[in-house]
Automatic annotation (TrEMBL):
<feature type="binding site">
    <location>
        <begin position="231"/>
        <end position="236"/>
    </location>
    <ligand>
        <name>GTP</name>
    </ligand>
</feature>
<keyword id="KW-0819">tRNA processing</keyword>
<feature type="binding site">
    <location>
        <position position="235"/>
    </location>
    <ligand>
        <name>Mg(2+)</name>
    </ligand>
</feature>
<dbReference type="InterPro" id="IPR006073">
    <property type="entry name" value="GTP-bd"/>
</dbReference>
<dbReference type="GO" id="GO:0003924">
    <property type="term" value="F:GTPase activity"/>
</dbReference>
<comment type="subunit">
    <text>Homodimer. Heterotetramer of two MnmE and two MnmG subunits.</text>
</comment>
<dbReference type="InterPro" id="IPR005225">
    <property type="entry name" value="Small_GTP-bd"/>
</dbReference>
<feature type="binding site">
    <location>
        <begin position="250"/>
        <end position="256"/>
    </location>
    <ligand>
        <name>GTP</name>
    </ligand>
</feature>
<dbReference type="GO" id="GO:0030488">
    <property type="term" value="P:tRNA methylation"/>
</dbReference>
<dbReference type="GO" id="GO:0042802">
    <property type="term" value="F:identical protein binding"/>
</dbReference>
<keyword id="KW-0479">Metal-binding</keyword>
<dbReference type="GO" id="GO:0005829">
    <property type="term" value="C:cytosol"/>
</dbReference>
<dbReference type="Pfam" id="PF10396">
    <property type="entry name" value="TrmE_N"/>
</dbReference>
<keyword id="KW-0460">Magnesium</keyword>
<protein>
    <recommendedName>
        <fullName>tRNA modification GTPase MnmE</fullName>
        <ecNumber>3.6.-.-</ecNumber>
    </recommendedName>
</protein>
<dbReference type="Pfam" id="PF01926">
    <property type="entry name" value="MMR_HSR1"/>
</dbReference>
<feature type="binding site">
    <location>
        <position position="125"/>
    </location>
    <ligand>
        <name>(6S)-5-formyl-5,6,7,8-tetrahydrofolate</name>
    </ligand>
</feature>
């Protein structure tokens, strides 16, 4: 599966910058770079010291392209475990593209998305969970998601998976020995001892799966939708959470007709906040599209902040909103507490049932802090803090863990029924296969293509 061609790519973002980087990896990386680089000094790149920056120029034949620093890193002690060359040129669009094209003209091929990291995986430098942590690290939008990615890159998840695999393999080896060598002096595989091992494995699988939802929130943030009728204070709430005038606020119902999305950092956790069009029955075609988009955004949300206007009597639109959030995790706000109330406690109970609510005015920043505290309480028990827990934050990992757990459940059932040992062995092999999918020990090229297609080119 390893492509033996030398790959090349721009590893910095497109646009004006102090420096740009062109990276190559493969057997011909040093040869190709040496062909276009002229050092200021006597040592060419091929005979220079490993991992030592050289100063010089890139030439296209006799034509000067750029003034650069260049470094070679010889295999196997590199990111890809192949020869790697990095060229540090002036930032911008033209210079890096010219140098990239020169490397391609001299025999390199353009790297696919994530191909450098894919080679690191295929050459055994990283396992698949660590490779996926690289893209999570790049895409991190909060301190905590960054810290989780760093721990996974260091091998926290793969170490835990390997610990579980070793227990499964020990169990399998004991069963095989008892099947194949029943007359030899070996440890007897009693159903009691096997059940103890199975319980240990199941407990660890359940713990990882239970942490998955929190892991997803730490990585992706809390997908939060603000929902309510027109002119109840949704845009004011968005602006208050953002500490910025992001949305237009007027006393004209229907001002917000589209979905507005922005991000808030809440003690290191990302809130992806969507302000929606007001929910109401309307004949306005444009506004109706906005209302439909608002209803659709509910489906993918982690949290709904439902906001009601306590200075106006409730109506059918308010009751529809309550129905929309019945099965969703939500925070209910009775807004405009600074105005005269037009609803009684009985009216509120009739609308909300047993739901708790906050009686607030979203134009007050102090009240906004109450909402943030409520979010932290709802998702993190009141305090967001970094822990040493191992978080599964990838849907692919969760699916594989659940497959392993299903197979382990069959093992436990067979142990309870004292079935033949060879039946246990079959299900244990399924557990090993599912766990191997996570770290890449048992995987397919299609899975690898899907994983690395999410990377940027040059990483």
């Amino acid at each position: 599966m390893i492509n033996n061609e030398t790959i090349s790519a721009i590893s910095t973002a497109t646009g004006e910058a102090g420096i740009g980087i062109v990276r190559m990896s493969g057997d011909r990386a040093i040869e190709i770079a040496n062909n276009i680089f002229k050092p200021i000094g006597k040592k060419s790149l091929d005979i220079s010291e490993n991992r030592k920056l050289l100063y010089g120029h890139i030439y296209d034949g006799s034509k000067l392209v750029d003034e650069v620093l260049i470094v070679k890193m010889e295999a196997p002690h590199t990111y890809t475990r192949e020869d790697v060359v990095e060229i540090y040129c002036h930032g911008g669009i033209i210079s890096v593209r010219k140098i990239l094209n020169l490397t391609l003209d001299r025999g390199a091929v353009i790297a696919e998305p994530g191909e450098f990291t894919k080679r690191a995986f295929l050459n055994g430098r990283l396992d698949l969970t660590q490779a996926e942590a690289v893209i999570d690290l790049i895409k991190s939008k909060s301190e905590i998601s960054y810290d989780v990615s760093i721990r996974q890159l260091e091998g926290s998840l793969s170490g835990k998976i390997e610990e579980i695999r070793e227990r499964v393999m020990a169990m399998t080896a004991l069963i095989v020995a008892n099947i194949d060598f029943p007359e030899d002096e070996i440890v007897e595989a009693t159903y009691k001892s096997l059940d103890e091992d199975a319980n240990y494995i199941m407990d660890n699988l359940n713990e990882l799966i239970e942490n998955a939802n929190r892991g997803k929130l730490l990585r992706d943030g809390i997908n939060t939708v603000i929902l309510g009728k027109p002119n109840v204070g949704k845009s004011s709430l968005l602006n208050g959470l953002l500490r910025d005038e992001r949305a237009i606020v007027t006393d004209i119902p229907g001002t917000t007709r589209d979905v507005i999305t922005d991000y808030v950092n809440l003690d290191g956790i990302l809130l992806k906040i969507t302000d929606t069009a007001g929910i109401r029955d309307t004949e306005d075609k444009v506004e109706k599209i906005g209302v439909d988009l608002a209803k659709k955004s509910i489906e993918d949300s982690d949290l709904i902040i439902a906001i009601f206007d306590s200075s106006r009597p409730f109506d059918d639109d308010d009751r529809e909103i309550i129905k929309l959030i019945e099965s969703k995790k939500s925070i209910v706000l009775m807004n405009k507490a600074d105005l005269k109330r037009a609803v009684s406690e009985e009216d509120i109970k009739d609308l909300l049932g047993d739901r708790n609510y906050l009686n607030i005015s979203v134009v007050s920043q102090g009240e906004i802090l109450k909402i943030e505290d409520e979010i932290k309480e709802l998702f993190f028990g009141g305090e967001i803090k970094e822990s040493s827990d191992i978080y599964v934050n990838n849907l692919r990992h969760v699916r594989a863990l659940k497959k392993a757990r299903d197979s382990m459940y069959e093992v436990k059932k067979d142990i309870k029924n004292e079935m033949f040992l060879d039946l246990l062995e079959v299900n244990l092999e399924d557990v090993l296969s599912s766990l191997g999918e996570i770290t890449g020990q048992t995987t397919t090229e299609d899975v690898l293509d899907k994983v690395f297609s999410e990377f940027c080119i040059g990483k």
